[in-house]
Amino acid sequence: MSPLTTSDGVELNVVESGPANADVALVLVHGWTMDHTSWDLVVDGLPGVRVVRFDLRGHGKSGAAPRGTATIDRLADDLAEVIDERVPTGRVVLGGHSLGGMTLMALAERHPELIRRRVAGVAFVATTSGGLSRLTLGLPRWVAAPVLYGEKLINRRIAKMRRPHLMGRRTGFARPGVRWLVFGARPARAHIAATAAQVGRCNPANMVEFRNALDEHERVHALPVYRGIPAVIMAGGRDRLCTVTDARIIAQALPDAELGTYPGAGHMLNYERPTEVTARLAGLLAASTRGLVVASPGG
Questions:
Q1: Angle, nearest 10°, between helix axes 99-110 and 204-216?
Q2: CA–CA dist 154, 16 (Å, integer)
């Protein structure tokens, strides 16, 4: 675990595991309000694989995003810098959960040559190419409207917190909301607690700024950069944030990709379906060394 300082001076917490001389490296990008530990169960299932993870700016143990830089564009630039510094040669397989998947789309938009030169596989896990400004959380629109308005009011209070460290002490109160919003049927209590704890480690002001960036995310046009690269798309059948419909839109832009849907699962596939996520990533890693797409179980 060692920090990386970005071109605009933010210190990113980077976590590396596996053999440094591997031919292929797996680079994983976590979701909004999460951190690199959200991938722990998946990484545990990939022994011997070179894995690079990092906490996005404003998340986990990384530094806060300076004013105006809590954007998906800047996250894509950070990802490009992590790859250039920590995986300077060889092939990479990319995996992105939620905001992480959106970051992979922005990477294609801003750094298409990096994709063409280096990327040997890509996984979009519980993510979307756009439309979050019209989010309904799976509720009737007349119910969703006041719920989302209440979220905005809460976010305004969070953004003004004078002692942001206190947010991490209140995660117990957040667990019911976390369970309803991002998990499907019968989640493990430990996974709900871990997710709430990660939310508590997120910089409050940045959390709100990135929430606004989610509404602005519209990048279906960037997806064709990944055509010709082995790709998998995964979606939970009960995901309130990034739906199966969102996954199918990504699949339409990447007609050769494998699409896996998981009835009963919510947004946190890394916790709810870690075996399936691991298998899909293992398939991409195998394909990157054999030049073919390997079918994976689980969807």
A1: 60
A2: 36
Count how many residues are written for the chain: 299
Are residues 217 and 132 in contact, defined by beta-carbon separation less than 8 angstroms?
Answer: yes
Cα-only R_g, the chain: 18
Q: Which two tokens stand for residue 152?
A: 């905005």
Angle (CA) 1 72 190, round 5°? 55
Tokens of 249: 């839109």
What are φ and ψ of residue 48, in 5° steps?
85, 0
Segment 78-93 shows an average pLDDT of 97
Tokens 């997710």, residue located: 195
Residue 34 tokens read as 């999460």
Two tokens, residue 4:
């990386």
Whether the per-residue pLDDT at 157 is higher than 70: the answer is no
Among residues 46, 50, 54, 123, the alpha carbon closest in space to that of 90 is found at 50
The helices-and-strands tally (H runs, E runs) of the chain is 11, 8
Separation between Cα atoms, residue 242 and residue 173, nearest integer Å: 24
pTM equals 0.90
Question: First-to-last CA distance in the chain?
Answer: 34
Digit-coded pLDDT (tens) for 181-235: 999 999 999 999 999 999 999 999 999 999 999 999 999 999 999 999 999 999 9
What domains does the chain contain, in order, with CATH numbers? 1-299 (3.40.50.1820)
